[in-house]
Design a protein that fits this description.
about 400 residues; mainly alpha; four-stranded mixed sheet; 4 strands; globular
């Protein structure tokens, strides 16, 4: 768990990399070997995974209380009450009953709960069966199985309960967390007003052969994307006074630019700059919506502009909704469209350029279910390895 704060967002793929991951792929033959090396399993013995069995820990509170009260009841049901049909309400009630008795309820394979063949547009049964098999066989409960696995499992169960994958359901392919994401984006308006002029200035700059100047500026966007994690929606609720949330986002911008290195345990930015400053291809594994996504897009904009003609930035997003705020394909386009309609000239200009990146192919959005599952990086599927190599 490598997030900079302890919260339920425990899904950083066993802490291999931080929330925004840069995979800079150069055209040289060394790129594939570098990727392969990164996927090798360490020879050191791994520590036991965190579980949710110890009262007083964040994991215990999350899985024994918070996911039921705050996520299922306080978000999924509250935000989608008017859209849920009787079948969805029944499935949600069953999930609520399991979570209310999390210490005793044994885990089961997801499609055990599918009432036959209602998940008509889901392609992840095999992956989830592989992931859950050890814990189902062992008779683990919601609390005794690894926390990372059960929390991913919860969000996949939520999608089953709402009928996300059921082509006949009213909420087919409807993001149950869409309202929270919309509120989160609206809450960071002032921060985006502060950010946009800086982003536009970099896009318009002519650095010529001055790689040091370009690297220094690009590093700011890397740090900004890193600290954008402070605006993670699962930590900063969007309810209440939007001004406070917006002020936090604005402060995050200034903190990233003025104090970007003060709280880092380790900083490889200098080495990273040597690779990405003129990279023709960079992949970013995107995490949260809202201001964090905006800072990731600002970094993607800087990388596309820094790389010159033919540069491509691939935004790797979740294949389906998870963890309330995690980014799916629709969130990227919704965010850009919202910013393009802004009355702030600089914000609208920034988003309009981002639309151009999309149309030209300089930006590619690539969803995959793997990013929404509780597998560690060293079990990355072959198609994902090939895609990022």
């Amino acid at each position: 768990h490598s997030h900079s704060h302890s919260h339920s967002h425990s899904h950083s793929h066993s802490g291999v990399l931080k929330n925004t991951r840069l995979m800079a792929m150069m055209a040289s033959s060394s790129s594939s070997s570098t990727t392969a090396a990164a996927l090798q399993v360490t020879s050191l013995e791994l520590p036991p995974p965190l579980t949710s069995t110890t009262p007083g820990t964040w994991a215990y509170d999350t899985m024994s209380r918070r996911v039921l009260e705050n996520i299922v009841q306080g978000t999924v049901v509250a935000d989608n009450e008017h859209l849920l049909d009787n079948a969805a309400r029944g499935r949600i009630s069953l999930l609520e009953a399991e979570l209310a008795n999390a210490a005793e309820t044994k885990l089961e394979h997801i499609l055990h709960h599918a009432n036959g063949e209602n998940e008509t547009s889901s392609n992840d049964e095999k992956a989830w069966r592989q992931l859950m098999q050890p814990y189902v066989e062992r008779g683990d409960t919601w609390l005794s199985a690894p926390w990372l696995v059960t929390e991913f499992y919860l969000y996949r169960r939520i999608l089953h309960a709402t009928g996300y994958f059921d082509a006949k359901a009213p909420l087919h392919l409807h993001d149950p967390f869409a309202l929270q994401k919309k509120k989160g984006l609206a809450a960071c308006a002032s921060a985006m007003s502060s950010l946009a002029p800086r982003v536009n200035a970099f896009a318009a700059a002519d650095f010529g052969d001055d790689l040091d100047a370009k690297s220094d500026q690009l590093r700011l966007f890397v740090m900004l994307s890193l600290w954008g994690n402070r605006m993670d929606l699962s930590i900063w609720p969007s309810e209440g006074d939007g001004a406070a949330s917006s002020a936090r986002a604005a402060k995050a911008v200034e903190a990233a630019l003025a104090e970007s290195a003060s709280n880092l345990l380790h900083d490889d930015a200098d080495n990273a700059m040597k690779v990405i400053v003129n990279a023709r291809r960079v992949d970013i594994v995107v995490d949260n919506a809202g201001f964090e996504l905006v800072t990731d897009l600002a970094l993607a904009d800087a990388l596309a502009c820094a790389g010159g003609e033919g540069a491509c930035v691939t935004l790797r997003v979740k294949g389906h909704p998870t963890y309330v705020s995690d980014v799916i394909l629709e969130d990227v386009f919704e965010t850009i469209d919202t910013l393009a309609a802004s009355k702030e000239e600089a914000v609208a200009a920034m988003a309009t350029r981002w639309k151009t990146h999309m149309r030209s192919g300089r930006w590619v959005v690539a969803p995959h279910d793997y990013w929404a599952q509780g597998f560690p990086f060293w079990t990355m599927p072959e198609d994902v390895v090939a895609a990022v190599s």
